[in-house]
Protein backbone atom coordinates (compact mmCIF):
# COMPACT_ATOMS: atom_id res chain seq x y z
CA UNK A 1 0.00 0.00 0.00
CA UNK A 2 1.00 3.64 -0.33
CA UNK A 3 3.75 5.10 1.81
CA UNK A 4 2.99 8.55 0.41
CA UNK A 5 0.73 10.97 2.25
CA UNK A 6 -2.40 12.43 0.63
CA UNK A 7 -0.60 15.81 0.58
CA UNK A 8 2.28 14.28 -1.37
CA UNK A 9 -0.20 12.73 -3.79
CA UNK A 10 -1.85 16.13 -4.35
CA UNK A 11 1.52 17.77 -4.99
CA UNK A 12 2.50 15.05 -7.45
CA UNK A 13 -0.81 15.35 -9.31
CA UNK A 14 -0.49 19.11 -9.80
CA UNK A 15 3.15 18.81 -10.85
CA UNK A 16 2.22 16.15 -13.41
CA UNK A 17 -0.67 18.19 -14.79
CA UNK A 18 1.79 20.84 -15.96
CA UNK A 19 2.92 18.43 -18.67
CA UNK A 20 -0.50 17.82 -20.22
CA UNK A 21 -0.95 18.80 -23.89
CA UNK A 22 -3.04 21.82 -24.84
CA UNK A 23 -3.98 23.73 -27.97
CA UNK A 24 -0.92 25.80 -29.02
CA UNK A 25 0.58 24.89 -25.63
CA UNK A 26 -1.60 27.59 -24.07
CA UNK A 27 -1.81 25.59 -20.80
CA UNK A 28 -5.26 27.10 -20.07
CA UNK A 29 -5.71 25.83 -16.51
CA UNK A 30 -5.17 26.76 -12.89
CA UNK A 31 -5.36 24.65 -9.74
CA UNK A 32 -6.73 25.50 -6.32
CA UNK A 33 -5.66 23.17 -3.51
CA UNK A 34 -7.94 23.23 -0.48
CA UNK A 35 -7.38 20.66 2.23
CA UNK A 36 -7.04 17.34 0.44
CA UNK A 37 -8.79 18.39 -2.77
CA UNK A 38 -7.65 19.98 -6.03
CA UNK A 39 -9.96 22.22 -8.02
CA UNK A 40 -9.23 22.29 -11.76
CA UNK A 41 -10.26 25.63 -13.23
CA UNK A 42 -10.31 26.98 -16.77
CA UNK A 43 -8.00 29.94 -17.32
CA UNK A 44 -10.21 31.85 -19.73
CA UNK A 45 -7.54 34.51 -20.23
CA UNK A 46 -5.77 31.83 -22.31
CA UNK A 47 -8.79 30.97 -24.42
CA UNK A 48 -8.53 31.54 -28.19
CA UNK A 49 -11.37 34.01 -28.89
CA UNK A 50 -11.11 33.63 -32.69
CA UNK A 51 -10.21 29.98 -33.19
CA UNK A 52 -12.08 28.58 -30.16
CA UNK A 53 -14.94 30.94 -29.46
CA UNK A 54 -17.07 28.26 -27.75
CA UNK A 55 -14.18 27.11 -25.55
CA UNK A 56 -14.35 23.52 -26.82
CA UNK A 57 -10.60 23.15 -27.31
CA UNK A 58 -9.96 24.87 -23.98
CA UNK A 59 -12.05 22.25 -22.16
CA UNK A 60 -10.44 19.41 -24.13
CA UNK A 61 -7.06 20.76 -23.03
CA UNK A 62 -8.20 20.87 -19.40
CA UNK A 63 -9.49 17.32 -19.76
CA UNK A 64 -5.98 16.17 -20.64
CA UNK A 65 -4.72 17.80 -17.42
CA UNK A 66 -7.43 16.01 -15.43
CA UNK A 67 -6.48 12.58 -16.77
CA UNK A 68 -2.83 13.35 -16.06
CA UNK A 69 -3.68 14.14 -12.43
CA UNK A 70 -5.69 10.94 -12.12
CA UNK A 71 -2.78 8.90 -13.43
CA UNK A 72 -0.24 10.59 -11.17
CA UNK A 73 -2.45 10.10 -8.13
CA UNK A 74 -2.77 6.38 -8.85
CA UNK A 75 0.99 6.14 -9.20
CA UNK A 76 1.26 7.76 -5.76
CA UNK A 77 -0.90 5.00 -4.30
CA UNK A 78 -4.38 6.55 -4.14
CA UNK A 79 -7.52 5.98 -6.15
CA UNK A 80 -8.64 9.43 -7.39
CA UNK A 81 -12.15 10.60 -6.56
CA UNK A 82 -13.30 12.97 -9.30
CA UNK A 83 -16.34 15.19 -9.74
CA UNK A 84 -16.92 16.80 -13.15
CA UNK A 85 -18.50 20.28 -13.24
CA UNK A 86 -19.41 20.00 -9.55
CA UNK A 87 -20.92 23.48 -9.07
CA UNK A 88 -23.38 24.98 -11.61
CA UNK A 89 -22.81 28.41 -10.04
CA UNK A 90 -19.08 28.22 -10.83
CA UNK A 91 -18.82 27.20 -14.50
CA UNK A 92 -15.08 27.83 -14.49
CA UNK A 93 -14.61 25.03 -11.95
CA UNK A 94 -14.29 22.08 -14.30
CA UNK A 95 -13.53 19.30 -11.84
CA UNK A 96 -12.39 18.43 -8.36
CA UNK A 97 -10.08 15.56 -7.55
CA UNK A 98 -9.00 14.13 -4.23
CA UNK A 99 -7.16 11.02 -3.07
CA UNK A 100 -9.56 8.25 -2.10
CA UNK A 101 -8.79 4.73 -0.99
CA UNK A 102 -5.19 3.55 -0.97
CA UNK A 103 -4.40 1.38 -3.95
CA UNK A 104 -1.47 -0.17 -5.75
CA UNK A 105 -1.01 1.03 -9.30
CA UNK A 106 -0.98 -1.73 -11.90
CA UNK A 107 1.65 -2.03 -14.60
CA UNK A 108 -0.37 -0.21 -17.32
CA UNK A 109 -0.85 2.75 -14.98
CA UNK A 110 2.88 2.89 -14.22
CA UNK A 111 3.59 2.83 -17.95
CA UNK A 112 1.24 5.77 -18.57
CA UNK A 113 2.70 7.67 -15.65
CA UNK A 114 6.21 7.20 -17.00
CA UNK A 115 5.24 8.91 -20.27
CA UNK A 116 3.75 12.09 -18.78
CA UNK A 117 6.92 14.14 -19.24
CA UNK A 118 8.21 12.23 -22.28
CA UNK A 119 5.13 12.55 -24.48
CA UNK A 120 5.31 15.35 -27.06
CA UNK A 121 3.39 16.56 -30.09
CA UNK A 122 4.79 16.16 -33.61
CA UNK A 123 4.27 18.83 -36.27
CA UNK A 124 5.47 17.25 -39.51
CA UNK A 125 5.27 14.03 -41.50
CA UNK A 126 6.19 10.64 -40.08
CA UNK A 127 8.74 8.02 -40.97
CA UNK A 128 7.48 5.27 -43.26
CA UNK A 129 6.95 2.82 -40.39
CA UNK A 130 3.54 1.09 -40.39
CA UNK A 131 1.55 0.79 -37.16
CA UNK A 132 0.19 -2.71 -36.50
CA UNK A 133 -3.61 -3.01 -36.54
CA UNK A 134 -3.52 -4.60 -33.08
CA UNK A 135 -1.73 -1.55 -31.68
CA UNK A 136 -4.19 0.87 -33.26
CA UNK A 137 -7.02 -1.19 -31.76
CA UNK A 138 -5.39 -0.84 -28.32
CA UNK A 139 -5.52 2.95 -28.75
CA UNK A 140 -9.22 2.72 -29.58
CA UNK A 141 -9.81 0.71 -26.39
CA UNK A 142 -7.93 3.35 -24.40
CA UNK A 143 -10.25 6.07 -25.71
CA UNK A 144 -13.34 3.96 -25.06
CA UNK A 145 -12.34 3.60 -21.41
CA UNK A 146 -12.78 7.38 -21.07
CA UNK A 147 -16.11 7.66 -22.86
CA UNK A 148 -14.96 8.64 -26.36
CA UNK A 149 -14.50 6.75 -29.62
CA UNK A 150 -11.23 6.76 -31.53
CA UNK A 151 -11.85 5.73 -35.12
CA UNK A 152 -8.93 4.99 -37.43
CA UNK A 153 -9.89 6.16 -40.92
CA UNK A 154 -9.09 3.19 -43.13
CA UNK A 155 -10.79 4.29 -46.35
CA UNK A 156 -8.42 6.17 -48.65
CA UNK A 157 -11.39 8.12 -49.99
CA UNK A 158 -12.32 9.28 -46.48
CA UNK A 159 -8.69 10.19 -45.73
CA UNK A 160 -8.66 12.28 -48.91
CA UNK A 161 -11.84 14.05 -47.81
CA UNK A 162 -10.35 14.85 -44.39
CA UNK A 163 -7.15 16.11 -45.99
CA UNK A 164 -9.07 18.28 -48.47
CA UNK A 165 -11.23 19.81 -45.73
CA UNK A 166 -8.15 20.44 -43.60
CA UNK A 167 -6.55 22.21 -46.56
CA UNK A 168 -9.71 24.25 -47.15
CA UNK A 169 -9.99 25.29 -43.51
CA UNK A 170 -6.30 26.17 -43.37
CA UNK A 171 -6.69 28.29 -46.51
CA UNK A 172 -9.64 30.19 -45.08
CA UNK A 173 -7.95 30.74 -41.73
CA UNK A 174 -4.79 31.98 -43.45
CA UNK A 175 -6.85 34.72 -45.09
CA UNK A 176 -8.19 35.89 -41.74
CA UNK A 177 -5.62 38.26 -40.25
CA UNK A 178 -7.25 38.11 -36.82
CA UNK A 179 -6.88 34.31 -36.80
CA UNK A 180 -3.27 34.49 -37.97
CA UNK A 181 -2.37 37.08 -35.35
CA UNK A 182 -3.98 34.93 -32.66
CA UNK A 183 -1.98 31.93 -33.87
CA UNK A 184 1.42 33.59 -33.91
CA UNK A 185 0.77 35.03 -30.47
CA UNK A 186 1.64 31.50 -29.34
CA UNK A 187 4.60 31.00 -31.74
CA UNK A 188 7.82 31.66 -29.84
CA UNK A 189 10.97 33.03 -31.51
CA UNK A 190 14.36 31.34 -31.15
CA UNK A 191 15.82 31.94 -27.70
CA UNK A 192 12.48 32.85 -26.13
CA UNK A 193 12.28 32.24 -22.38
CA UNK A 194 8.48 32.13 -22.32
CA UNK A 195 7.11 29.08 -20.54
CA UNK A 196 4.13 28.61 -22.86
CA UNK A 197 3.41 28.55 -26.58
CA UNK A 198 5.26 26.65 -29.30
CA UNK A 199 9.03 27.31 -29.56
CA UNK A 200 10.66 27.68 -32.96
CA UNK A 201 12.41 24.31 -32.69
CA UNK A 202 9.01 22.57 -32.46
CA UNK A 203 7.36 23.67 -35.69
CA UNK A 204 8.62 23.52 -39.28
CA UNK A 205 9.86 26.63 -41.02
CA UNK A 206 8.47 25.30 -44.30
CA UNK A 207 5.73 22.74 -44.53
CA UNK A 208 6.78 19.47 -46.19
CA UNK A 209 3.59 17.93 -47.59
CA UNK A 210 2.47 14.39 -46.94
CA UNK A 211 0.36 12.40 -49.38
CA UNK A 212 -2.45 13.27 -49.05
CA UNK A 213 -1.40 16.56 -47.52
CA UNK A 214 -2.50 17.54 -44.03
CA UNK A 215 -1.19 21.10 -43.63
CA UNK A 216 0.42 22.22 -40.39
CA UNK A 217 -0.45 25.37 -38.50
CA UNK A 218 1.34 28.33 -40.03
CA UNK A 219 3.31 29.29 -36.92
CA UNK A 220 6.02 30.84 -39.12
CA UNK A 221 3.60 33.39 -40.62
CA UNK A 222 5.46 36.63 -41.48
CA UNK A 223 8.80 35.52 -40.06
CA UNK A 224 11.62 33.08 -40.77
CA UNK A 225 11.53 31.08 -37.56
CA UNK A 226 11.03 27.35 -37.40
CA UNK A 227 12.98 24.11 -37.68
CA UNK A 228 14.09 22.23 -40.73
CA UNK A 229 12.11 19.07 -41.47
CA UNK A 230 13.59 15.63 -40.85
CA UNK A 231 14.71 13.83 -44.01
CA UNK A 232 12.49 10.88 -44.75
CA UNK A 233 9.55 12.03 -42.62
CA UNK A 234 6.90 12.48 -45.29
CA UNK A 235 4.46 9.65 -44.46
CA UNK A 236 0.94 10.55 -43.38
CA UNK A 237 0.69 7.83 -40.74
CA UNK A 238 -2.64 6.58 -39.43
CA UNK A 239 -5.40 9.18 -39.58
CA UNK A 240 -7.77 8.92 -36.61
CA UNK A 241 -10.69 10.90 -35.22
CA UNK A 242 -11.97 11.18 -31.66
CA UNK A 243 -15.75 11.49 -31.51
CA UNK A 244 -18.48 11.68 -28.86
CA UNK A 245 -22.23 11.04 -29.08
CA UNK A 246 -23.04 14.57 -27.87
CA UNK A 247 -21.34 17.94 -27.74
CA UNK A 248 -21.68 19.06 -24.13
CA UNK A 249 -19.05 20.53 -21.84
CA UNK A 250 -18.90 17.18 -20.04
CA UNK A 251 -18.11 15.45 -23.33
CA UNK A 252 -15.41 17.98 -24.18
CA UNK A 253 -13.73 17.22 -20.84
CA UNK A 254 -14.17 13.48 -21.48
CA UNK A 255 -12.56 13.95 -24.90
CA UNK A 256 -9.52 15.49 -23.25
CA UNK A 257 -9.21 12.60 -20.82
CA UNK A 258 -9.54 10.07 -23.65
CA UNK A 259 -7.03 11.98 -25.73
CA UNK A 260 -4.39 11.98 -23.00
CA UNK A 261 -4.88 8.27 -22.29
CA UNK A 262 -4.39 7.57 -26.01
CA UNK A 263 -1.33 9.84 -26.26
CA UNK A 264 0.41 8.36 -23.23
CA UNK A 265 -0.28 4.82 -24.42
CA UNK A 266 1.04 5.70 -27.87
CA UNK A 267 4.14 7.41 -26.45
CA UNK A 268 5.02 4.28 -24.47
CA UNK A 269 5.33 2.47 -27.83
CA UNK A 270 7.35 5.19 -29.59
CA UNK A 271 4.35 6.65 -31.43
CA UNK A 272 3.59 10.39 -31.65
CA UNK A 273 0.54 12.37 -32.74
CA UNK A 274 0.17 15.34 -35.06
CA UNK A 275 -3.06 17.33 -34.68
CA UNK A 276 -5.16 18.86 -37.44
CA UNK A 277 -8.23 20.54 -35.95
CA UNK A 278 -8.54 23.31 -38.54
CA UNK A 279 -11.72 21.89 -40.07
CA UNK A 280 -13.23 21.32 -36.63
CA UNK A 281 -12.83 25.03 -35.86
CA UNK A 282 -15.20 25.88 -38.73
CA UNK A 283 -18.80 25.14 -37.79
CA UNK A 284 -19.97 24.29 -41.30
CA UNK A 285 -17.12 21.88 -41.97
CA UNK A 286 -17.44 20.24 -38.58
CA UNK A 287 -21.16 19.70 -39.11
CA UNK A 288 -20.50 18.29 -42.58
CA UNK A 289 -18.05 15.79 -41.11
CA UNK A 290 -20.47 14.85 -38.35
CA UNK A 291 -23.27 14.06 -40.75
CA UNK A 292 -21.39 12.63 -43.73
CA UNK A 293 -18.45 10.73 -42.25
CA UNK A 294 -19.14 10.02 -38.58
CA UNK A 295 -22.76 8.85 -38.47
CA UNK A 296 -24.00 11.79 -36.44
CA UNK A 297 -21.24 11.61 -33.81
CA UNK A 298 -19.44 14.85 -33.02
CA UNK A 299 -15.82 15.02 -34.19
CA UNK A 300 -13.70 16.48 -31.39
CA UNK A 301 -10.12 15.82 -32.47
CA UNK A 302 -8.47 14.91 -35.78
CA UNK A 303 -4.95 13.53 -35.65
CA UNK A 304 -2.28 11.52 -37.46
CA UNK A 305 -0.35 8.84 -35.59
CA UNK A 306 3.07 7.57 -36.51
CA UNK A 307 6.76 7.20 -35.73
CA UNK A 308 8.92 10.34 -35.76
CA UNK A 309 12.71 10.34 -35.69
CA UNK A 310 13.09 13.63 -33.81
CA UNK A 311 14.89 14.44 -30.56
CA UNK A 312 11.74 14.13 -28.48
CA UNK A 313 12.09 17.41 -26.63
CA UNK A 314 8.85 18.56 -25.05
CA UNK A 315 7.43 22.06 -24.93
CA UNK A 316 8.12 24.53 -22.14
CA UNK A 317 5.83 24.50 -19.11
CA UNK A 318 4.65 27.24 -16.80
CA UNK A 319 5.97 27.09 -13.22
CA UNK A 320 3.67 25.96 -10.44
CA UNK A 321 3.68 29.47 -8.99
CA UNK A 322 1.74 30.61 -12.07
CA UNK A 323 -0.75 27.76 -11.87
CA UNK A 324 -1.72 27.60 -8.21
CA UNK A 325 -4.45 29.82 -6.85
Sheet having the most strands: 4 strands, antiparallel
Secondary-structure-derived class? alpha+beta
How many H/I helices? 9
How large is the share of residues in beta strands? 15-25%
User: According to CATH, what is the topology of the largest domain?
Assistant: NADH Oxidase
Give the end-to-end Cα distance, rounded to a whole number of Å.
31 Å
Keywords: Flavoprotein, FMN, Oxidoreductase
Domain Nitroreductase: 6-34
Organism: Nonomuraea fuscirosea
Pfam families: Nitroreductase (PF00881)
Keywords:
325 residues; alpha+beta; NADH Oxidase; 2 domains; four-stranded antiparallel beta sheet; 9 helices; 34% helix; 16% strand; globular; FMN; Nitroreductase; oxidoreductase activity; Nitroreductase-like; Nitroreductase family protein
Amino acid sequence: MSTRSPKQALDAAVEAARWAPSVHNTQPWTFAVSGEEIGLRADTARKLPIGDAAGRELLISCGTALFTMRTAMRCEGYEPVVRILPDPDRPGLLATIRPGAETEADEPTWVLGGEIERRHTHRAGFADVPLPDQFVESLAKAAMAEGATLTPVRSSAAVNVLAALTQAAQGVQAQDERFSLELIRWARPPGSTRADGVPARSYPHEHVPTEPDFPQRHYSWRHDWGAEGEAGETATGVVAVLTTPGDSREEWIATGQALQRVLLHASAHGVSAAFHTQALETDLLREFLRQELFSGRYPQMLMRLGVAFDDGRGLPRRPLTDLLE
